[in-house]
Amino acid sequence: MYFLMIEIKNIxxxxxxxxxxxxxxxxxAKGDVMVICGPSGSGKSTLIKTVNGLEPFQxxxxxxxxxSVGAKGTDLPALRARIGxxxxxxxxFPHLSVRENLTLAxxxxxxxxxxxxxxxxxxxxxxxxxxxxxxxxxxALSGGQQQRVAIARALAMDPIAMLFDEPTSALDPxxxxxxxxxxxxxxxxxxxxxxxxxxxxxxxxxxxxxVFMDQGSILEDSSKEAFFHAPQTERARDFLARIIx
Length: 245
Description:
Elements: E1 4-15, E2 18-29, E3 33-37, H1 44-50, E4 59-64, E5 67-68, H2 76-82, E6 83-86, H3 98-110, H4 114-127, H5 143-155, E7 161-165, H6 173-188, E8 193-196, H7 200-206, E9 209-214, E10 217-223, H8 224-229, H9 234-244
Parallel strand pairs: 3-8, 3-9, 6-7, 7-8
Antiparallel strand pairs: 1-2, 1-4, 4-5, 9-10
Helix pairs in contact: 3-4, 3-5, 4-5, 5-6
């Protein structure tokens, strides 16, 4: 059954005089895996951060599971607790152990007991293959391991959707696949996902939708098959030719 999870309608955003998003519209159904791609500086990361209110916008509307993100009375911290976000640079607390990183937000935001938070956190730490590292500090882990902990931390909050902002761009090449493998598993389990990435192999494997952006505008919004086999714009054809070859 089709259930609309995220609706982005005519979003525009400026930094001073510079317009970083230009009338962007798209929607994500429950269970969709949408990959957002395009050249650097095209507005991809800004767009994904508007979905949970990390970036304010000046025009348009975003509705997540019935909640209007930009409305005055919206409780953004409560909304963010329901939408997992994984950043480029892990954003783990360096002075807390892996276990503490996994439980802190559950206790503070969701009001879970320490025992319940630990149980949920360690369940997802096991899910990303790092249970043995629960007592280590982030600095003792590789970049790929830290990113997997960040994914586990987001999952422990029981999100209705996951946002990934270039989750592999800060990683060494040999660590990229360990993070992508976790994301592929999530997609196959039916998690609703929006993923900003240059990893076209991941897009081909698990995305069902591809959005292509350039200079703040959405130029293509199509099925994966249509995007890879018959992109509609010259700009997208050029981008694909460069990134795939």
